[in-house]
Amino acid sequence: MGPSSISYGHFNVSLVTRSFESRTADWLSVHEATEKIIAGVTPLRVERVLLSDSLGRALAEDLVADATLPPWNNSGMDGFAVRAKDIKGASKESPIRLVVTRHVRAGDAPGPEVGQGEAVRIMTGAPVPSLTDSVVRVEDTDAESDSGVVQVFDDRDAGANVRPAGQDMRPGERLLGLGHTIAPGAVGVLASAGRGRVLVHSRPQVAVLTTGNELRGPDQFEDVRSGAGIPDSNGPMTSALVAAAGGSVMQLGPSADDERDLRNWINKAEDCDALITVGGASMGDADLVKRVLDRMGYRSGFWRVRMRPGSPVGFGWLPRGDRLQPVFSLPGNPTSAFVTFELLVRPFLLRLGGHRDTDRRRIVCRTEEAIHSPAQLTYFLRVQLSGTSENSGVRLTGPQGSGLVSGLGRADGLAIIPEDVSRVQEGEGVTVMLLEG
Ligand code: AMP
Ligand code: MG
Q1: Quick one: average pLDDT of 226-241?
Q2: 323 has which bridge partners?
């Protein structure tokens, strides 16, 4: 007897001897399937990349400030830096006149103290001279129409519009945590912390292989028009899903439903961190993916999940030299491919890419129509929402057949009807997984 589990690269894998093709369905719950996929996955290696290349990556370090920002008390307005007590009582009827001693711009030194009855013309971001505590907005003055003297018509800015040093960040302050997904706002924070390069996790390299004799690319669309083929929508869609989950894609196929062709394509994915096959994974005569995988030594993790759409989804590992490559076999119906990716592949890729947050935001919404749900399966429906907060109204994008693709373009989220619920009445709450970002 060999070991019951083995560690290969990043993956701890239970050794399963049953083959995919001959095995019976496991019918795992969505949760069990997710747990099985996630177990033992550790983030990929780290690398230092240019800040401009960091968008969508996961931080592989805590970002800690080592400078004070803003570095000086500075003006939040274009206007006049003054002492609050010098402008008290200023109004249109009784303006207060102050002597303007100089002009200070962002990047200038603050210069000497400001005396009583004096003002300094100041621009947004410029350092506020000492002894001033207010910046009067230019609209409340005559804008120094008489050079060297300013008239102040309002005292509402007494004590206002000075942004204190250190308000934004101070040395030692933690700005972003390990595993944070770098969105454009985080790029701004990283730049503010002086990072020209950032330590991040590598992007998972993911091969996407579509399969089916009937599939046509955009250059063969004439066949689709004439009724001789169907568009390979899953190839570009699955590649986009991978990219949106922080992966980089090697798009393969479409492969013919032919063992040799399939094997050739699968071999091209050798060096990838994961392989996603789409189609040919079910019970039909042309469903050769699992046979080819089995002949290549595939170890099955599971086959079949209690979900609709997408129940024929499979997951396992393919030996590649001294490592095992995770393989997802998604069903070919476009919505089945989409939903199984969202539920099972996306969290895996995010974890592999080192991202801390791997779950979609879920909110409870009110359904505007009754929903029937199959017994014993978790049902995922494409829905549109009236808002993105709890209690928003939710309605179906249209017919919910798994072969339909058009509703996916309109879907804000997937409504989730649990296994033990067979009917939801109009007005009742349903959980919706939001498809954001
Ligand atoms: P399969 O999983 O191969 O049995 O395919 C199930 C259904 O999905 C069939 O109607 C296929 O034509 C369709 N299908 C399979 N692959 C794709 C694809 N890449 N793009 C669009 N539809 C597909
Ligand atoms: Mg097929």
Answers
A1: 98
A2: 320
Tens-place pLDDT, residues 60-84: 999 999 999 999 999 999 999 999 9
| 119 pocket-lining for ligand 1 (C-beta < 6 Å) | no
Out of 18-32, 123-137, 361-375, least confident range: 18-32
> What is the pLDDT at residue 281?
83
Helix H segments across 211-340?
A: 221-225, 234-244, 259-268, 289-295, 334-340
What average pLDDT does the chain have? 94
Q: Do the strands 205-211 and 118-122 form a parallel or antiparallel pair, or are they unpaired?
A: unpaired
Element (H, E) at 183: none
Q: Is the C-beta atom of 257 inside 6 A of ligand 1?
A: no
The finding on whether 309 has its CB within 6 A of some atom of ligand 1 is: no
pLDDT of residue 24: 83
pLDDT at position 17 = 46
Q: Which domain does 95 fall in, by range?
A: 74-163
Separation between Cα atoms, residue 49 and residue 424, nearest integer Å: 49
pLDDT tens for residues 15-36? 554 555 556 899 999 999 999 9
What is the residue with the minimal CA distance to atom 14 of ligand 1?
A: 332
CA 350 from chain centre, in angstroms, equals: 9
Q: Is 209 exposed, middle or buried (0-12, 13-18, 19+ CB in 10 A)?
A: buried
Instruction: Classify strands 79-82 and 118-122 as parallel, antiparallel or unpaired.
Output: antiparallel
Q: Which atom of ligand 1 is nearest to the CA of 214?
A: 12
Q: Say if residue 403 is in the same domain as residue 429.
A: yes
Task: Report the pLDDT value the prediction gives residue 388, as an integer from 0 to 100.
Answer: 86
Neighbours of 299 (CB within 10 A): 21
Three-class secondary structure of residue 21 per DSSP:
coil
> Is the same domain home to 148 and 191?
no
Tokens 């770098």 belong to which residue?
182
- Please report the sign of the dihedral spanned by the C-alpha atoms of residue 257, residue 260, residue 264, residue 266: positive
> 345 and 304: one domain?
yes
Is there a domain that residue 357 lies in?
no
Task: Say if residue 278 is in the same domain as residue 261.
Answer: yes
